[in-house]
Amino acid sequence: MSVLRATALARSTGAVIAGGALLLGTSAVVNAAGHERTSRTAALAAPAACAHIKHPHQGQTCGHSKIMLVTYTMSKPCRIYPNYPAKGTSWIAGGDRIIWRYNVTKTTALVSDIRGHGKGFPWWGFVDSSCIGTSTGQSAATYYRYESGHWKSHKTPAIAAGKARPQRLMSARSQNSSGWTPVVWRPSHGAVPSKKVKAGHNITLRDRRGALVIGNVSSTWQIRPSGTHQGGWTLIYVPNLHRWGWAQL
Fold first, then answer.
1. Could you tell me which residues are beta bridge partners of residue 198?
2. What Cα–Cα distance (Å) separates residue 129 from each residue in 44, 155, 165, 211?
3. Tens of pLDDT along 73-129?
4. Are 182 and 171 spatial neighbours (Cβ–Cβ below 8 Å)?
5. Which pick of 34, 135, 144, 151 has the fewest CB atoms within 10 Å?
6. Nearest Cα to 130, choosing from 103, 155, 157?
């Protein structure tokens, strides 16, 4: 996996990039070459990921105190869809590992095909949730909290193997106190902009600025950017999908 792809996936999930690695909250992480390395190496690299915090305050956290990207095994082959509803484009094999993010309905879930990351965009898609088996099990991961003038390492709770995916709808794992955050499937918006432009690059559509994935936009599609911007993100309307979302243009 390239650093660019790892960064893109991290942005879509809230994962941490440390030393060119995507930390999935497991005992192994994927490095820039696409190979796994142990959590011990990742832990040693983690302080470098905190270097951007120039003036940390007491109790500030660097990294994730909970594992958000929980992996599951596919119980059977399943077609993955770039958008919901939409036609499928490829298959995920039975036995492959995926990252479950949230349930759209009782029968549809947003997942990331780990094996398919090397194929590039899109990194996330929608599957029949009956294809998703049980959790693979993930060891505690390291994160840091600033205490008494130093970054001190801590461990996240581990994820047990053999657990079924959560049944809650439109709700994704989060770092907040409840452990969950709602999915904004239909972001608030104004009138559809009259200006049309070509996307120009593949876009992962989010429910909020830099937050949860709700769709994918092809580089060849037309989009209608609004005048609403937040920290490098723009609220856009996608005619092909008949929906709104946040994008980096």
1. 222
2. 37, 30, 9, 22
3. 999 999 999 999 887 678 999 999 999 999 999 999 999 999 888 888 999 999 999
4. yes
5. 34
6. 103
